[in-house]
Amino acid sequence: MTNNNGKKPNRIVQLSDAASYVLPYLYPAELSAISLTCKTLHLLAKSVTAVRSSDACRNSEKLPIPFVNSAVDNHPYAYFIYTPTQVLSFSDDLPRQPWGLYPLQRRDLGLILPPTLEDGARCECERCGNDSAGCPCSRQNFSGLRWECGSGCICDLECSNRVSQRGISIRLKIVRSPGKGWGLHADQFIRSGEFICEYAGELLTTKEARKRQQIYDKLKSTNKLTSALLVVREHLPSGNTCMRINIDATKIGNIARFINHSCDGGNLSTVLLWRFWFESKWIKVFLWHQLLHRNHAF
């Protein structure tokens, strides 16, 4: 085989080119094993590890969120399938997702997003104002539940009632602590009431959530798994109905999976957020912050 210049291609270059397409899809154990085969693959695997450690979000957010392990152990990062928003649950094997060497594109997620409906119920504000007081969407806010403008509304993404839709806008980092593992830390001063992130993961039915929790409880006793299954129960304004949302970020999720799941809520407030869609409302769980200084854990 010859290239366009009539010369035989360099085998190392061929190997590097082929490996650059394969290595980002490998799990950490597979990546470690292949790095032992030759010097070229060792260097490429090292590059993949460096990229993974530099940004847990795979370039999907405005700011990179790095893993920081100050010689606690030899774990440079935590492996999981990334999604910036909630996805439908996976009953079969999880998809492989490229991570390393190249930025992750939306088409690379390999996940099934819940359906969205674009028209119908909406506000007609061109700009809802800094306090959003005049917007019919935000007028329905009350403690623990917020309403945001959705795709059916006229206002654009800069509307002050679309804060969560602009993604993560503060500097964060994921720090490895002795005896505790990975945890999300602030990397800047955060004011009270600032939006942190959506709790992204698999949307589960209550039946599936209970089934998974039983599995996670068994694995926890053997120290083989730390689950990130979040169950939120909210009594609606009528007082007659309790809404339950089950989001599992154990294997598929975003950086919210590294937040401390304390019983008292820690220094975070969990807020249910509705957006206006066609003849329905789309609900998500978001995390809003109390005052926090740099390097403090959530």
TrEMBL record:
Q: Where in the cell is it found?
A: Chromosome
What GO terms describe the biological role, i.e. biological process, of this protein?
methylation
Q: Which GO terms describe its molecular function?
A: metal ion binding; methyltransferase activity
Keyword S-adenosyl-L-methionine present in the record's keywords: the answer is yes
Q: Name one GO cellular component term.
A: chromosome
Q: Which SUPFAM superfamilies match?
A: SET domain (SSF82199)
- This chain belongs to the protein called SET domain-containing protein
